[in-house]
Amino acid sequence: MEVIIQPSPKAVCAIAARHVAHLLRTKHKAVLGLPTGSTPISLYAEIVRMHREEGLDFKQATTFNLDEYVGIDPANPASYHSFMRQHLFDHLNLDPKNIHMPDGMAKDMPLACQAYETAIREAGGIDLQILGIGADGHIGFNEPSSSLSSRTRLKTLTDKTMRFNKSFFSPGQPVPRYAITMGVGTIMEARACLLLAFGDAKAVAVERMVEGAVSAMVPASILQMHPQAVVILDEAAAKNLRHKDYYRFVYNHKPEWQQR
Ligand code: GLP
Fold first, then answer.
1. What does DSSP assign to residue 171?
2. 68 catalytically annotated
3. Which CATH number describes the domain made up of 2-258?
4. What residue ranges do the domains of the chain occupy?
5. Protein residues with CB under 6 Å of any ligand 1 atom
6. Which atom of ligand 1 lies at the shortest distance from residue 39's CA?
7. How far apart are the CA of 240 and the centre of ligand 1, in A?
8. Which one of 25, 44, 74, 199 has the fewest CB atoms closer than 10 angstroms to its CB?
């Protein structure tokens, strides 16, 4: 696991955007795994800027989102479909048929989940999976105790996650208890994972993910087993890490061919 600590969320997103750009420029039909949440908003803004100003081309790219609420119409402003349109999809030249999001309105959930896994496989697998992290260490909507080899499936959200999600729904609107999410096993099959985290509220989860034991109680900790996982943090999210100086040294002394 490579840990990169940066002075600000903006600097974190600049590096993450360079990873995305590198993939798109070196792989003809790149496949991206995408998250929602407040964390990737600045990353998406930077990607949109690169598309507009530097010609970063998404014509041949394919995307798969991590998760979506169950029972929330894609037109609902609180849906992850709406979020993605607003922050990314409406601003890029992606082919709509290459955009994939879990169907939270599916009549047959197990079938929809299986179809999602099949679509990922048929696209050749995910090249780069971008991730945020929940304050309890969840990735996607894989809450603590999720099987570390789980696949795309329906998940019951914890009360804590529901309380957090409440701010994205208008007052009086019920907050979904269920979501469809790629499994931890699905995420681990991506050829590379890039997790971003900002702020004090993530410091404990980050510490447990990077320097704690691998445990289903901290699903993100499984990234320790991934052959190509990069974690990019701001100072606040990194504040509890014991080996901060080592991570800084490694990053500052990377050979040129490894720099991005
Ligand atoms: C939700 C999403 C996750 C995201 C997490 C953290 O649970 N399903 O993919 O990583 O929120 O969100 P934020 O980036 O807003 O802190």
1. T
2. no
3. 3.40.50.1360
4. 2-258
5. 35-39, 66-67, 132-134, 140-141, 161
6. 14
7. 20
8. 25
Tell me if residue 159 is catalytic.
no
Is this model's pTM higher than 0.90 or not? yes
**What phi-psi label fits residue 172: left (phi over 0), alpha (psi between -120 and 50 degrees) or beta?**
left
Confirm whether 200 is a catalytic residue. no
Atom of ligand 1 nearest to the CA of 199: 16
* Per-residue pLDDT tens digits of the chain, which is 260 residues long: 999 999 999 999 999 999 999 999 999 999 999 999 999 999 999 999 999 999 999 999 999 999 999 999 999 999 999 999 999 999 999 999 999 999 999 999 999 999 999 999 999 999 999 999 999 999 999 999 999 999 999 999 999 999 989 988 988 889 999 999 999 999 999 999 999 999 999 999 999 999 999 999 999 999 999 999 999 999 999 999 999 999 999 999 987 777 66
Task: State the residue for tokens 């079938």.
Answer: 111
CA-based R_g, the chain, Å: 17
Amino acid at 143: E
Q: Whose CA is nearest to atom 12 of ligand 1?
A: 37
State both tokens at 107.
């009549």
Alpha-carbon distance of 160 to 8, in angstroms, equals 27
- 3-class secondary-structure state, position 239: coil
